Amino acid sequence: MGTIHPAPGRIVRYLLIVLFIVVSMPSGAAAIEAPPAGLGTYLQTNGPTNGIGNGDWYTNDSNGVVDLNGNPAPGYHYHEITVPCGWPATLPVYIDLFSPAMVVDATGDEVDPLVSGNELIGNANNTIFELYDVGTAIKLDKNEPAPDTSTLVNAKQTYIPIQSIIDGEIWQRFYTLDAPVACGTYVLRAETEGNDQNAWRVRVGTDDDNDPKNPPPANYDNPDGFSGTDDEILIGVRTGSYQNDATAGTVECLTLYEYVAPNQTSVNFHNFDMDNAGQVTYYAPDDPSNPSYTPRVIDGTPSGAPPSPTTNAVWNGTGASQTDRGTGDEITPASGNTYLESGWWRIVTCIGRDNQYIQEGQTGSSAYYTQPPIPKMEVSKGDGVDLTSPGDQLTYTITYTNTSSGATAGAATSVVLKDTIPAKTTYDSCVIAPSEGTCSYDSLNRVVTFALAHSVKAGQSGSVQVIVKVDTSVLHGDKITNTVTLNYNDSLGNPYPQESAKDEDTVQIVPALPMMAVSKGDGVTAVAPGNILTYTIIYTNVTSPPAPVLAKNIVLNDTISSNTTYMSCSVIAPATGSCIQAGGVVTFTITDNLDIGYSGKVQVKVTVNPGALGTVENTVTLDYEDDSGNSRPQLSASDIDQLPPPDLRLLKSASTSQVTAGQLITYTLSYFNDSVMLATGVQIEETVPVGTHFVAAGGTPGWSCADGSPAGTSCILQIGTVNGKSSGSVTFIARVDTPLPTGITRIDNTAHISDDGTHGADPTPSNNAGVTSAPPLAITLIAFTARPVSSGVLISWHTGSEIASSGFHIYRSAGGSRDRATRITPAFVVARGQGGAGASYSWLDTDAPADAPVTYWLQEIELDGTINEEGPFSLTSSALDSTTTVFLPLVIR
Fold it and tell me: For the chain, what is the domain count?
């Protein structure tokens, strides 16, 4: 039995905290503090050399656990902090510890003053707390996780002893999990060095002042204040011991909750070092759905009481000892039952002051200090009919609901539904909203699996669908039976009993049952805001002849898309009936009975809403009955139109391809919206080209830049709204600078068009830029001359400027075709222009054909290998009286 005397003031201060929590906590919420606030019981972690008779078997080197070398391998205390997946993404989680360090005071409440060395601060009296990440496995037989493993959440804290009770017996911030907090179970490990005994508590939740010494805010562990919404933090214990520091002469009870999985034939509950004192009671799970149910109450055996040895520091039950748990208390099913009651069992341990003990329950299982949330799922299904016939399409709607309520309500997690396709039917499809989860079909086992992507909170429900077609080989009187099962867990991952539901239909062939078909459409596939859509719905009796089979009581329900506004409805003659719109659903009630081969037609007219995005989906369902008033399988049809985003496109051209300094260049920018969707907030952005300046006069008014703005200035023109399938054009004028800056040989210009994105992102942004189709050139070649001389044709050329030019080649063709031209310069004519200046060149073509037309091309090769070509230059004859001179405009510098 372990003994700890609390320092004066510890209980008093703690009662103040208890009062705050009780007053502030909403109905049904359980504050997450371990042990629960208000108890005089503490968590106590002893050092490995502390006497095992002080109650901490897990950490003691006399517990019989050894390492691979046979040496004592005392373990640790492990607590689990579970952050639910519904915890608000904006809230951090704070982990606070009460008195995590050893406190050295006059009463010696935590440090053994009789053992040499343990009074030395910073030596053997340290305590260590570590936090491990979600998914960290606890392996009690191997003392894992080992210290400082990769899953440590950078939260290892070593606390050295504190001399002052004022500084030691307070709440301290251990660690903060920053928002958004990853959901799952974190592992908190506690260790005490030497032979010391450390009493402490833990609290987890939110905070409003970042000061753990102040009481936490209301709902700090359950932010919305409601049960069953998957935002309730839980603290569990895997291995730990307790110290009862209640008022002298009183007995205090600690309640723990442990989960017993379904289909168990027995479990064993263990406790340690109760010294045959106090009382242990086990309570079977309640049934929240059955208030009159009375759970079993079973008296347990405190350790030290028969049949365990009547000694100190032993486990309870037959075969128990200091190092062997024995059988503990074996719990078997109630009379007449095969399995134990599954769910949360309560283990209540009542014991007097100054007793340290372990209440383990099931070895390796986690126990919780407050009742964990309890989900209760139910499932139902149906196809809306009792009779079916060959070829029928049956749509099974499966509805799931979390019916848990009250203070213990819990969210259901890992919800999976499995629907077995009936014999004598063929699978068609499964339906689940993408945001809800996924569905898949196993053709080998004929099972459709729905996996929900979210938890189902208390009171929530949802539905999925399975669609099958009845085989033509069915016989009159056959049964079509469809069964679905639902499996789920609680927020801690504990599995709950499987739920199931089924639907059964009878095949009727004689008399024949009517079979209908329905279709709908609006004649378009792409729409835009403001469009008026007319949906035509056609219903037909497609029953196979020859016997007359009437379809009666025909009702169509057309659901208006949220992207549209209802305008009108009509029943088209010769069909008769009525239509009415309510709550976004247009209901057509047809008064005619429809015979084989006959059809009817109705229409719904809507307008597409301003600002509509995505798709416009309109669905109609058809319900009808046979001649005896039996419901037939519901049919449906849909029409989906796309609301494509605007698709802007920009083209541009220049007024000239060759310019001189001071000349105006007029750029024409033609814009198009290739989509049916209007574009709003459209603007064109131009950048004044290098070597020019902006000219406001003569261009489209409204450009944002000032007249004369220099090169590089961004100029924006607001276009506004461009309707779908429409176009327009604007102009932008620039004047070539005088003189042109050195090195400018081309004047390039690019413009961009964009909108405000209200109606979606442009699907082809690559064509939102317009580049001049023929960029103005700063030509460097001034003249090219081909003149016959007695020895051939003398070719001369003169450049006005040369930039990064390596040299020239000349090509000649007798027939005027570039493809047949041959190079007549065996080597480079090396460029001679210096500092951007030009030069004069000549080359004698001694092989030019006499008295025949020839054509020349001048090819320039730049230093980087880029090839530029001028020509063709044609000479009608190589006779001496024939000369060709070509003068080329130059941008004047």
Answer: 6
Beta bridge partners, 280, equal 349
CATH of the domain at 310: 2.60.120
- Tens digit of each residue's pLDDT (9 = 90 or more) over 325-349: 999 999 999 999 999 999 999 999 9
Q: Where are the beta strands (DSSP E) in 655-804?
A: 664-673, 679-687, 692-695, 714-722, 726-736, 750-754, 769-771, 781-789, 792-799
CATH number for the domain harbouring residue 534: 2.60.40.740
Q: For residues 359 and 281, is the Cβ–Cβ distance under 8 A?
A: no
What residues are paired with 465 via a beta bridge? 397, 431
Instruction: Tell whether 220 and 115 lie within a shared domain.
Output: yes
Q: Residues 82, 58: one domain?
A: yes
Question: Who's near 314: CB < 8 A, 6+ residues apart?
Answer: 272, 273, 303, 304, 308, 320, 321, 322
Q: Is the pLDDT of residue 71 over 60?
A: yes
| Cα separation, 99 vs 45, whole angstroms | 12
pLDDT score for 317: 93
Residue 6 clears pLDDT 70, i.e. is over it: no
Model pLDDT, residue 7: 32
The contacts of residue 609 (CB under 8 Å, 6+ apart) are: 529, 563, 564, 565
Q: Which amino acid is at 121?
A: I
Average pLDDT for residues 543-557, to the nearest whole number? 91
pLDDT at 806 exceeding the cut of 80: yes
Q: Is the pLDDT of residue 8 over 70?
A: no
Is 764 in the same domain as 789? no
- In this predicted structure, the answer to whether residue 146 has a pLDDT above a threshold of 70 is no
Structural domain contains residue 216: yes
Tell which wins on pLDDT, 113 or 44: 44
Which of 590, 625, 643 is the endpoint of a domain? 643
pLDDT tens figures, 74-101: 889 999 999 999 999 999 999 999 999 9
Q: pLDDT band for position 628 (50/70/90)?
A: very high
Q: Are residues 266 and 389 in the same domain?
A: no
Residue 189 and residue 323 in one domain: no
pTM for this entry: 0.70
> Is 3 contained in some domain?
no
Residue 272 and residue 187 in one domain = no
Burial of residue 82, with CB atoms counted within 10 A of its CB: 0-12 exposed, 13-18 middle, 19 or more buried: buried
Residue from 373, 109, 337, 327 nearest 221 by CA: 373
In terms of C-beta distances under 8 Å and separation of at least 24 residues, what long-range contacts does 12-20 make, across chains too? 13/169, 14/98, 17/215, 20/215
Show the domain range for 229: 10-244
Domain end call among 195, 226, 244? 244
CB-based contact 537:558 (threshold 8 Å): yes
Tell whether 636 and 659 lie within a shared domain. no
The Cα–Cα gap between 517 and 537 comes to 11
Is the same domain home to 785 and 675?
A: no
> Distance of CA 853 to CAs 490, 732, 846, 878, Å?
95, 45, 15, 7
